[in-house]
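User: Hey, my collaborator sent me this sequence without any context and asked if I could get a structure. I don't really work with proteins. Can you help?
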Amino acid sequence: MSGCLWPVRWCGLLNSARRALGGLLCVVCCVAGVQAQERREREPNSVYAERRAKLGVQVDGPIILWGFTGREEVSQAYVFAQEENFYYLTGHNEEGAGLIILPAGQKGDVANVLHETLFLPAKNPQKEKWNGVRMSPSDPGIEARTGFVVVKPFESDFRSVVENLAKTFPNFYTILPYQKELGGYPHEKAVVDWLQLAAPQAKLKDIRTQINTLRQIKSPGEIAFLKQACTTTGSRARSKTATSSFSTLARNTPATPRTSPARCPPTASSRRASAKSMTSSSERKTRHSPL
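Assistant: No problem. I've predicted the 3D structure and written it out in C-alpha cell form, which is a compact way to encode the shape of the chain:
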C-alpha cells in the first residue's frame, strides 16, 4: 500500500501541489541569492590599473591583499559588499578574491608572476545555483572584464605564488590590523595570520597609509558618483521634509468653527415677495380648512 488514505485523485493533486511549492521555494531562494550580490558603481578598468601602478612605485616588496570572503556575516539578509580598499584597487565586488601587486622596477625570481595578478575562485556551477553566477579564471574574456592581464584560481595558486615570492622579497605589504579592534569581523587579522603561516620568514609592513593617501584625491568618476548620491539624497530629504511640514501644519492648524452663511439684508422687492408668499399661503389654508 502507498500509505495514502485519500482517493487517488486527491493524492495526485496533493503531490502536484507539493512539487509546485518546492519549485517555488527553489526559485525564491535562487532569486534571493542573486539579489544578495549587489552591483556597485564601477569606473573604467584603466582607473583601477592607474591606482595599482601608483601604489607599486611606493613599495620594495609585494602587496598582498584579500577581498572579503562572503562569510563575514551569518544573517540570511546579508548583502555582500566588497572590502573598501580592495574594491578601490580592483573594482571587483565578488567574494573570495585575492590581489598581488609587485613593486615597480624590481627584478627577481618571480616566474609565472607578472606585475599584478588577480585571483578568483574557480567555477562552481553547483554553488552558483544558490548564489548566482560569479566570475572565474576560466571565463572567456575574463582579462578584459577585470582589467588584469593575468587572472588565476585563488584556491590552487594563491598560496604557491606567495611562497615563491617569499624566496625573493624579504618584505611583504598588506593592511595590518589596528592595535585595538574597532569591532566587526577581523578581516585584516585573518589575512595577517594566513601570511605568517604561508611566508613566516617575510616581514609584514602596513600599506594602509599609502592607500589612504591615494583615496584622498578623488577621480572624476568618484566625483560624479558623489554628486549623484548627493542629488538623490537631497531629493529624498526635500520630499520627506515637505511631507513632514504638511503633516505638522495639519496637526497645528486649529479647526475652523462652523458658522452660518452670511445673509444679505432684505430689499424692498424681497420684502414684498415674502409678504405676497405669506398671503398666498394663508389663503390656501383658508380654502382647505374644514367647516
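In plain terms: Residues 230 and 236 are 10 Å apart (CA to CA). You can pass these C-alpha cells on to your collaborator as they are.
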